[in-house]
Specification:
Radius of gyration: 21 Å
Order of helices and strands: HHHHHHHH
Mean pLDDT: 75
Shape: globular
Largest sheet: none
Strand content: under 5%
């Protein structure tokens, strides 16, 4: 009897470890999705945290679809609120850029320039274009799956992905980065 209970505890410990690894992967994927939507690491972390709180309150299963849906809902809510309220910057906007222009010794110049070009190119896409491109290119979802997740027709999703790739390709080509899309 004791041997059997020890085996069950060992198995449950293994499943808890596997579950923790699965949750870690789910949270990483959720953060990447939130980052693709918001294009801001701090805002992405806030979106993920709010979505996790929502999942906990609802007692929902920790699944990608539910978490992604919660992240998207919070992003849309924030976007709508942002459209209602107008924020005017205080002070010189160039001062912030000059303050953040410190040298980063961990990256070489070429790599940093390529990331900057890519970041600017992605930042120039609309949020729905970044979302569709992320779900397609990074998460590997089909157009049908993206359509179901976002509530848009499949044809619209295909058009948005095509338009986002074309815009990204054109912007990267204009900045001198080789075409890879």
């Amino acid at each position: 009897m004791k041997k059997r209970s020890m085996q069950l505890r060992a198995r449950s410990g293994e499943s808890e470890k596997a579950r923790d690894e699965d949750l870690d992967e789910l949270f990483q994927r959720g953060f990447r999705y939130a980052l693709a939507l918001s294009h801001d690491p701090d805002r992405a972390a806030d979106l993920l945290q709010d979505a996790c709180v929502s999942c906990l309150r609802a007692g929902a299963a920790w699944r990608t679809g539910y978490l992604f849906s919660a992240i998207r809902s919070r992003f849309v809510d924030q976007y709508r609120r942002q459209m209602i309220s107008v924020v005017e910057p205080i002070g010189d906007p160039g001062a912030l850029e000059r303050a953040g222009a410190a040298e980063d010794p961990t990256h070489d110049e070429l790599f940093r320039a390529d990331l900057d070009h890519l970041d600017r190119a992605l930042g120039g896409l609309r949020a729905d274009e970044r979302e569709a491109l992320y779900l397609s290119a990074v998460e590997g979802y089909s157009a049908r799956e993206i359509a179901e997740a976002t509530g848009r027709p499949r044809g619209t999703v295909l058009s948005v992905i095509h338009r986002a790739r074309r815009k990204l390709r054109d912007r990267l080509r204009d900045s001198g980065i080789e075409e890879t899309l």
